Amino acid sequence: MTTAAIDVGFLYSGPPANHVRVRVARDLPDLMRVFALRAIVYMAEQVCPYDEEFDGNDFAGATHLLAEIDGEPVATLRLRWFADFVKVERVAVKAEHRGGAVVKSLFGEAVRLAAKRGYTHAIGHIQARLEPFWRRMGFFQRLDRARFRFSDHDYIEVEGRIERDPEALSTETPPLVLLRPEGCWDAEGPLDKSASRAATCPC
């Protein structure tokens, strides 16, 4: 495993990214945006078969991040949560937005979200040709792991170390915080507001 944590400062450095908004996909319209981006990048550009791109993991323990500029979807990635690591997958960025603020903001939010959940280890299965890009994002090849192949591409494994958020969620986190929408644990959610009402339902 790598010794240096992913440089979050780098991910948020460079020209202002105020025009880029990265958020968790929360409803069906958001997922349609996510799937449209992946269809553009993987199915259209890389000629990936439908059943291989939409692999049965989109609704099974996954979080989808969506990057937008002025409300227009431009990039997405999927996070799948395992016992002691998070897997970064399905990174799809429209051609005109590759590199720069969009990609860095997308990865920055992924790292922030994982750190807040208490994760310290991330992995990715990436096309070998993309290793330089992932290295810039703070992920390094696992040299003790063999290459493998699927969907007509050669793949390698990469990993990155995440600096755990000192206020990461835990069993000691207040109940109403754990009930808040994914990724928005620092802001009041709908159930916080309901807590001001007296309990009227039978126990």
Automatic annotation (TrEMBL):
Entry superkingdom: Bacteria
Residue stretches spanning the membrane: none
Domain (N-acetyltransferase) ranges: 20-165
InterPro entries reported in the protein's UniProt record: Acyl_CoA_acyltransferase, GNAT_dom
UniProt entry keywords in alphabetical sequence: Acyltransferase, Transferase
MF term (GO), any: acyltransferase activity, transferring groups other than amino-acyl groups
Protein name, UniProt field: Putative acyltransferase
Organism, scientific name: Terricaulis silvestris
